[in-house]
Specification:
By secondary structure, the chain is α/β, with parallel strands linked by helices. It has a domain of 153 residues: Rossmann fold (3-Layer(aba) Sandwich). A 6-stranded mixed beta sheet has the order 4-5-6-3-7-8, sandwiched between helices. Helix content is 29%, strand content 23%.
Length: 268
């Protein structure tokens, strides 16, 4: 399988206030990601899974170059290949049309952008002259995806793109992503809509406390975790992390960031 991007030992930590010091400006390393090794395959959809606080959004931003991460100096193509990023929340508001919004954003690029083609790809042709204030949540998500597609990226990084969509809009958006993947675009996606992600992803990467626990196809992950073929993503998360199913949606504490019990090993 052709690889679009390889991450080698990528690490990054947020800087937070150090309350143990009397100095109000004192800082310390806080939550982050640690020694992530991961291959992004061309034309495949990789689902990032894990409870809140696992490091999914941090890893996505690191891949997009928003953080100056240790490990990217070893990844010679990471900053030179085209990467499109769709953040979790974008507030599209105003009396400006979809078409003019994309035209304005495309001015940031040196090369000419075919805005009409992007509008057609994401299924906004009938809404291209509508004002942002009049768009549904599903149409707003498509507009965010259209922005990520400016520049014809080889990799798309999508943070919770299914949030706020009704089931019909979720399925339509998923079909759109599958179509892009079939054209050779690599897609990295995180979502709390585990059922849709389970049907959508070719591979999954399970994160916990900023570390990569396991990665592979759904069948491979199930086998490595000792789960049956009917086990879903929620069961995978709980089996690998030891978290109670009722707590998966809760924010987890990453304060100490100590190594945790690994698959097949004991806590150090």
């Amino acid at each position: 399988m052709e690889t679009s991007l390889t991450l080698n030992d990528v690490s990054w930590r947020h800087t937070v206030r150090d309350y143990s010091s009397w100095k109000p400006w004192a800082k310390k390393d806080g939550p982050g990601i640690h020694s992530i090794n991961l291959e992004i395959h061309k034309g495949q959809i990789l689902g990032l899974i894990g409870p809140n606080g696992a490091g999914k959004s941090t890893l996505m931003k690191a891949i997009c170059g928003l953080y100056d991460c240790k490990g990217f100096d070893k990844t010679c193509t990471s900053r030179r290949i085209g990467i499109g990023y769709m953040p979790e929340q974008v507030r599209w508001e105003g009396r400006i049309s979809v078409r003019n919004t994309l035209k304005t954003i495309s001015l940031m690029r040196e090369e000419t952008v075919d805005v009409g083609s992007i509008i057609q790809i994401v299924g906004l042709s009938s809404k291209s002259d509508h004002h942002l204030d009049n768009l549904s949540q599903g149409m707003r998500q498509r507009l965010s995806l259209a922005c990520a597609l400016i520049g014809n990226p080889k990799i798309l990084v999508l943070d919770e793109p299914l949030n706020g969509l009704d089931p019909l809009a979720q399925r339509a958006f998923s079909n759109l992503l599958e179509s892009l993947a079939s054209k050779g675009v690599s897609i990295i996606i995180s979502s709390h809509q585990v059922a849709d992600l389970e049907m959508l992803a070719d591979r999954v990467a399970l994160l916990h406390h900023g570390q990569l626990l396991i990665e592979g196809t759904l069948s491979t992950v199930r086998e490595n975790l000792g789960l049956d073929d009917n086990s879903g993503i929620l069961e995978m998360i709980c089996s690998a992390t030891g978290i109670d199913p009722g707590d998966v949606s809760l924010e987890l504490s990453n304060d100490d960031l100590l190594p945790f019990k690994q698959l097949g090993g004991e806590e150090e």
